[in-house]
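Throughout our pipeline, every protein is held as a single compact record rather than as scattered files. The record that follows is passed on verbatim for readers who wish to inspect the format.
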Amino acid sequence: MTIPVDIYFISICLLASIPMYFKGTQALYLKLFPLFLIVTVSVEIVGTRMSLKNLNTNPLYNVFTTLEFVFYFWILNQMVKNRIAKKIILYCLCLYPIVCFLEIAFWLEPDKFHATTYALGCLLVVAICIYYFFELFQLTHSVNLIREPAFWICSGLLFFYCCSFPIFGFANFLDGLPAFVVRNVEVILNILNGLLYTSFTIAFLCRLKVQKSIS
């Protein structure tokens, strides 16, 4: 079985995140990230095996991407400071899976991808990330962004969901496109996934202290 490129990126990201789980001083969202990545790589492996058997993977990814957005809403809620913004994000966290369920159960055709609510999730994540940067630039004290995990996570999410929005928003139309177009879309998604999980990896490693040897 040929292992998809994105599984390599997720696996490297998972290895980089494991120390976060055992560091008591880290923020809670960093400590829980390894568990999320374990679920992510497991879903990708199952999805790959299903594809090789010509099974429809849309039901699997409908559930996973819904939970994925809920997790991202939660970590973004942990990152922003404004109480009103945090409350709005909490509402999004609670309402989004309900809207997804309604689309999948009553609107979506059987075995189709929930493109509409996925696109909604993309827009919400992008909007929250932009607000995070707005708060960041409003700070009265300086912040070393290179060593700020939230900055790298938000940067990765913002770039990924800005670029993947038009792709997944029309995911249900890809089946009718020529094979070479579908392959090009897959290459683009692999690049986007690579950049997303690379940014996550940097977020986990940016606070590691490198001790200089004294000669």
